[in-house]
Amino acid sequence: MARGKKLYEGKAKVLYEGPEPGTLVQYFKDDATAFNAQKVDVIDGKGVLNNRLSEYFMVGLGQIGVPTHFLKRLNMREQLVRSCEIIPLEVIVRNYAAGSMAKRLGIEEGKQLPRPIVEYSLKNDELGDPLVTEEYIAAFGWASPQDMDDILSIALRVNDFLSGVLYGVGIKLVDFKIEVGRVYEGDFQRLVVADEISPDSCRLWDIETGRKLDKDVFRHDLGSLTEAYAEIANRLGVLPKNATPMQKPTLIN
Ligand code: TMP
Q1: Is the CB of residue 96 below 6 angstroms from any atom belonging to ligand 1?
Q2: Cβ atoms < 10 Å from Cβ of 115
Q3: CA quadruple 125, 218, 54, 80: dihedral sign
Q4: Ligand 1 near 197 CB (within 6 A)
Q5: Which atom of ligand 1 is found nearest the CA of 101?
Q6: What pLDDT is attached to residue 239?
Q7: Residues 6+ apart with CB under 8 A from 140
């Protein structure tokens, strides 16, 4: 499918104009960045895996009634999505202490939290995506109180869905980040899960061994990132049988 002109290039994806108004083509790159792009590399096959995994999670969410921007996968690296206005927040849900929360509060990594905790960061790379409160969000008008109610409920539904699906294949969902967009339908707006849901934006640990299967493998040089992502894809049955990401580009139709 012919894509239109490039609209935006981020660290891991590129957005192009889609074939119809209100659509975009989202292209998954192999580029990996961490620590606000202080660490950068190209990881062969990462984009192909994230395209498939994000499709898998977004389609599943749609089936349980959580609206997403996903329309269809176009090829190995591209998917067609609805164009939406991204709310400038990173919505993070945590089930176990890890990463910045473990550090900030001095909690041992891996400790189960008393309940899922939802937090918000302002999407601003220059500032390093600072944590913000709902007071800030309301005062600066980044999202309305109604939006925030909807975002909280979407975030918790996504958490329950992802936790359950991953638990079923022996993986613990430690935490994850989503982005939420506004779609306008006439005078109405509704919120949809946008961007991507992939091991780039989650922490995923093998339940039996504790092995990390997410971008922390890249952040902390723990081994092969594509092997980790392929392990998740294989357990979820997302990759065709006998395919490994190393056989690119014939492995996935
Ligand atoms: P953190 O512990 O570094 O705050 O990250 C929490 C979760 O959010 C973790 O699953 C990784 C994800 N995340 C992103 O997807 N993008 C980001 O820019 C950051 C900082 C975190």
Answers
A1: no
A2: 8
A3: positive
A4: no
A5: 2
A6: 82
A7: none
CA distance 193 to 153: 12
Q: Which atom of ligand 1 is nearest to the CA of 202?
A: 10
Supply the residue whose CA is at minimum distance from atom 14 of ligand 1: 201
> Among residues 190, 203, 15, 202, which one has the least CA distance to residue 87?
190
**Whose Cα sits closest to atom 5 in ligand 1?**
99
Q: Which atom of ligand 1 is nearest to the CA of 174?
A: 10
Q: What burial class does residue 82 get, using C-beta atoms within 10 Å of its C-beta: 0-12 exposed, 13-18 middle, 19+ buried?
A: middle
Q: Determine the Cα–Cα distance for residues 24 and 43; give it in Å rounded to an integer.
A: 24
Give the atom of ligand 1 at the shortest distance from the alpha carbon of 102: 2
The answer to whether 51 and 14 are in contact (CB under 8 A) is no
Give tens-digit pLDDT for 8-37.
Answer: 999 999 999 999 999 999 999 999 999 999
In contact, 207 and 170? CB cutoff 8 Å: yes
Q: What's at 117, amino acid-wise?
A: I
The pTM score is 0.94
Rounded distance from Cα 199 to ligand 1 centre (Å): 11
Q: Which residue has the tokens 């329309």?
A: 71
